[in-house]
Automatic annotation (TrEMBL):
Claim: Metal-binding is one of the keywords in the record: no
Nuclease in keyword set: no
Keyword entries, A-Z: Membrane, Transmembrane, Transmembrane helix
Source domain of life: Bacteria
Classification lineage: Bacteria, Pseudomonadati, Pseudomonadota, Gammaproteobacteria, Oceanospirillales
Name of this protein: Bile acid:sodium symporter
Transmembrane segments: 37-56, 63-85, 91-111, 123-143, 155-177, 189-212, 218-242, 262-283
Length: 301
């Protein structure tokens, strides 16, 4: 059974989102446990990566150029689009907050499942996460004005737990454990990290189902907005990085499409407005399809 799920993991992500939509009560009951799943996913993913190589990647200027594209450029661009089309203020704030959000911590596991460089994806993910407190603060300052109060202490605590904690633990394990024994263990457990990814589309889509039950047309609008955001992030990043080679371009594209809306919500909470959680839930459908689309593009290009 596990072997089947791992073999078809990319498609199963989309099915997890569908199941979460069909069973909203189960989805909403899983939602509070997602930060814990996030921690274990990050730890297992980092254990399978050579930390020295990751640090080298983070020192590379191209990672921070990508991170600026991922957060700052898209935040400004989506804000301009929302302003030009006079979007609802609450939805506009949610859209810009999504654009400012760092990449999903599950991205390296997805990239590994696609056969690409997971270390590069991890460096991109950490880079965009480190930019998040600045970018989300600017977003809230613009849309919420003087009422904004961003809990940076809580953010940095989460940053330590979800990024620096797993990195330090991985450094320690790699330094102490015998190399051959560690490699054997990682070969056995690394394929199963993708299974943890299923919890995110399943647990986040419940808020979108609540909106769908209350107002189906509004939910459809949110879904269209979510699809447009994912398509924009994915296609623009693909075009920007196309000259760097197909693998780098596809890695940048799927890293841009995946957004860690759970972490952003944990940091800013109610300041993101009532539209953020339903939009984050709607994002799970197109986001969970991105790995399948990326795998198809990888074969066709």
């Amino acid at each position: 059974m596990f072997a089947f799920l791992i073999r078809h993991s990319l498609l199963c992500m989309f099915l997890a989102a569908i199941l979460g939509f069909v069973f909203p009560s189960l989805s909403l009951s899983v939602f509070p446990f997602l930060p814990l799943v996030l921690f274990f996913l990050m730890t297992l993913t980092l254990l399978g990566i050579k930390q020295a190589e990751l640090i080298v990647r983070l020192r590379n200027r191209k990672i921070w150029l990508y991170s600026s594209l991922h957060a700052i450029f898209y935040m400004l661009f989506i804000g301009l689009i929302g302003w030009l089309f006079s979007a609802n203020a609450s939805l506009q704030l949610a859209m810009v907050a999504v654009a400012a959000t760092g990449s999903l911590f599950a991205t390296p596991a997805i990239v590994r499942a696609l056969g690409f460089d997971s270390v590069e994806a991890m460096a991109m993910t950490i880079g965009t996460t480190l930019l998040l407190p600045l970018v989300i603060f600017v977003t809230l300052l613009i849309y919420q004005g003087d009422s904004v109060h961003l809990d940076l202490v809580a953010y940095f605590l989460r940053l330590i737990i979800f990024v620096f904690g797993p990195m330090a633990f991985s450094f320690l394990v790699h330094a102490i454990a015998p190399r051959e024994a560690l490699d054997r263990m990682l070969v056995k457990i690394s394929p199963y990290t993708i299974l943890l990814v299923f919890a995110f589309p399943f647990g986040l889509i419940g808020s979108f189902r609540v909106l769908f039950d209350q107002d189906p047309m509004a939910a459809l609008n949110y879904l269209l907005v979510a699809m447009g955001l994912c398509a924009l992030f994915f296609s623009v990043s693909l075009l920007v990085y196309w000259r760097s080679g197909k693998e780098i371009a596809l890695t940048a594209a799927i890293t841009s499409g995946n957004r860690n809306v759970l972490l952003t919500y944990s940091i800013a909470g109610a300041l993101l407005g009532p539209a953020f959680l339903p939009l984050a839930g709607a994002l799970q459908l197109p986001t969970s399809l991105l790995p399948v689309i990326t795998r198809w593009l990888n074969k066709k290009l």
